[in-house]
TrEMBL record:
This is Coproporphyrinogen-III oxidase. GO terms for biological process: protoporphyrinogen IX biosynthetic process. Its EC number is 1.3.98.3. [4Fe-4S] cluster binds at residues 55, 59, 62. Monomer. The gene is hemN. SMART domains: Elp3.
């Protein structure tokens, strides 16, 4: 109980360092583009992301940038804007670099028609060097309520080989409370068809911390999901931020599980999935032992970016669409968040960049430390010293002193200089990473982030 009180803070999820809170709207887009081009490794492969913001239904828990509409005609004008942005991005960054990773997110990417999916993929192939050998990681987020067998066939034929199914919870009471009523049979049908079509990896998304969830109810959901045998599982911590996300105002905070219950659900989830043969990749991800994420982690090559855990550390991430975030060389930048502003920016300026950050040497060093911790649950100072030519103990003297509390609380262990995160510490890995975050004021509450527990 004391540990929960001490560590139930708000903090970043560290899909980047610096995090998006540090992105500066005062930086000129031209300087971000120039530095991105100058610092990019043009011999390395690329990762592409396309954001499709439309959803036909609102899920109350959702914190994604979305547009709720039943009007499918809104998709085509948006796609035309994306094509304009895509052409410019290709001129800046393509350099015939092979695209090893592609992801469509949202919103609901399958909101667009099958024909529009064909056209979008064709446009990407015309502007970037997409693979045609099925060896890349080409993935798409799917709402099983919006994916017919014909749509799945189209996705497979156009080059997708990985899918991620939004499930969240199978309990009818929880589904009703978050306005996401999704019968198990619907999800199972999409899963079966995807396997029949030869998708090489199927991920399922779950969320813990939703209204009416208990240890027992989520345990029952896990039993069914384990029986469905997905290749990967993402089990996200619900972040209740109704002041930031209007749809969350529909959720009654009195019906949410307590921090103690959430932590118990997470611990039970980890234990149960480990018993079922999954590898705990980190924070919110699990994978089969032969999955590329598990293999990358075992080899010390796992990475984390705006799409979560990834095996593609060497890739620059070129993102397009409203609110999309790119990572090019030593630059992060984000597009306009509002759909009208995004459309106007692309039309008038040939880009949609709203804010960004140029990484300093200190950012790169701290980012590497945080990546080691959040991807591998250990920290090898010698590796950081060798990579950046510094004295780790001197550079991080204050941070190492702060780790003493974590050691006393059983969150980390030290063997010589080597630091390893304990099973208890894995549940609070975001707080451990925060010790190395130069942008978070020490001993002060953090704002703009979700709660760790």
């Amino acid at each position: 109980m004391d540990l929960i009180k001490r560590y139930d803070l708000s903090g970043p999820r560290y899909t980047s360092y610096p995090t998006a809170v540090q992105f500066d709207p005062a930086l000129s887009p031209e300087s971000l583009i120039t530095q991105g081009q100058a610092s990019a490794d043009k011999s390395a492969p690329l990762s592409l992301y396309v954001h499709i913001p439309f959803c036909a239904h609102v899920c109350y828990y959702c914190a994604c940038n979305k547009v709720i509409t039943r009007n499918r005609d809104r998709a085509q004008p948006y796609l035309e804007t994306v094509y304009r942005e895509m052409k410019q991005l290709s001129q800046w960054y393509s350099d015939d670099r092979i695209v090893d990773q592609l992801h469509w997110g949202g919103g609901t990417p399958t909101f667009i028609s099958d024909q529009q999916m064909h056209e979008l993929m064709s446009a990407l192939r015309s502007q970037f060097n997409l693979r045609d050998d099925d060896k890349g990681d080409y993935s798409i987020e799917i709402d099983p309520r919006e994916a017919s067998p014909e749509t799945l066939e189209v996705l497979r034929k156009t080059g997708f080989n990985r899918i991620s199914l939004g499930v969240q919870d199978l309990d009818p009471k929880v589904q009703s409370a978050v306005n996401r009523v999704q019968p198990l049979e619907q999800t199972q049908a999409v899963l079966d068809k995807s396997r029949q079509l030869g998708f090489s990896s199927i991920n399922m998304d779950l969320i813990y911390g939703l209204p009416h969830q208990t240890e027992q109810s989520f345990d029952a959901t896990l039993d069914v999901v384990i029986g469905m045998n997905p290749d990967r599982l993402s089990v996200f911590n619900y972040a209740h931020l109704p002041d930031r996300f209007r749809s969350q105002k529909h959720i009654n905070s009195d019906e949410l599980p307590s921090p103690e219950t959430k932590l118990a659900i997470l611990q039970n989830t980890i234990d149960k999935l480990l018993d079922a043969g999954y590898v705990y990749i980190g924070m919110d991800h699990f994978a089969k032992p032969d999955d590329s994420l598990a293999l990358a982690q075992a080899a010390g090559q796992l990475h984390r970016n705006f799409q979560g855990y990834t095996t593609h550390a060497e890739c620059d991430l070129v993102a397009m669409g409203v609110s999309a975030i790119s990572q090019i060389g030593r630059v992060y930048y984000q597009n306009e968040h509002d759909l009208a502003a995004y459309t106007q920016a692309v039309t008038q300026q040939q880009h949609a960049i709203k804010r960004g950050v140029c990484l300093t040497d200190d950012d790169l060093i701290r980012g590497a430390v945080i990546n080691q911790l959040i991807c591998h649950f250990e920290l090898n100072p010698a590796a950081i010293e060798k990579r950046f030519n510094l004295n780790f103990d001197q550079y991080f003297a204050a941070e190492l002193a702060e780790l003493a509390q974590f050691e006393d609380d059983g969150l980390i262990q030290r063997q010589g200089r080597h630091i390893s995160v304990t099973p208890s510490g894995r549940l609070l890995i975001r707080r451990i990473c925060m010790a190395f975050d130069a942008y978070i004021p020490k001993q002060q509450p953090t704002r703009g982030y979700s709660r760790i527990i």
